[in-house]
Design a protein that fits this description.
It is a single chain. With about 150 residues, the protein is of the alpha+beta class. It is built from three helices and seven strands; from the N terminus they run βαβββαβαββ. A seven-stranded mixed β-sheet has the order 1-2-3-4-5-7-6, sandwiched between helices. Strand 2 and strand 3 form a beta hairpin. The longest helix is centred in the N-terminal third of the chain and has 15 residues. It is globular.
């Protein structure tokens, strides 16, 4: 196991919210990190809200959107502020990429802030314009999945 991995990595699970408590955790993490109001639960079958659990504790939230072009977008990637800096974001991305592979996608794409671009680059994402209508100030990144 690499040294930069959190201890107890086998205790992680990335899963869809199944109950009210899971949905509250999902929206709460997004609200704490991004200051977003609570949206309605996604109605599209191509939109997959997911919660990262460490044991039974929800510590992260991510939305995976199947773009139907052999790529999936990882959106609003968030680790609860109380758990940031412990390597959990890397673990969540690894689990999300596995989920993306399960959808049959060969690429994962993200919109990154300039501050987050270095993190994504450190886990194998490259700057690449994949969305022609992307707003300025955002770094588009892509990772080809094996």
């Amino acid at each position: 196991m690499p040294a930069d991995r959190p201890k107890g990595e086998g205790c992680y699970r990335l899963d869809s919210p199944h109950c009210d408590h899971d949905w509250q955790a999902y929206h709460g993490i997004r609200r704490r990190v991004f200051h977003l109001p609570k949206p309605d639960e996604p109605g599209s079958p191509d939109c997959h809200p997911l919660v990262l659990f460490l044991g039974e504790q929800p510590i992260g939230a991510i939305q995976v959107d199947d773009l139907k072009n052999q790529a999936a977008a990882l959106r609003l990637v968030a680790i609860d502020p109380a758990f940031q800096g412990g390597g959990h974001g890397r673990v969540m991305l690894e689990h999300a990429e596995q989920f993306v592979r399960g959808l049959g996608c060969k690429k994962a794409v993200v919109y990154a802030t300039p501050e987050a671009a270095g993190f994504y680059q450190s886990v194998g994402y490259d700057e690449e314009d994949w969305d022609e209508v992307c707003m300025g100030g955002i770094v588009q990144m892509l990772k080809v999945l094996d």
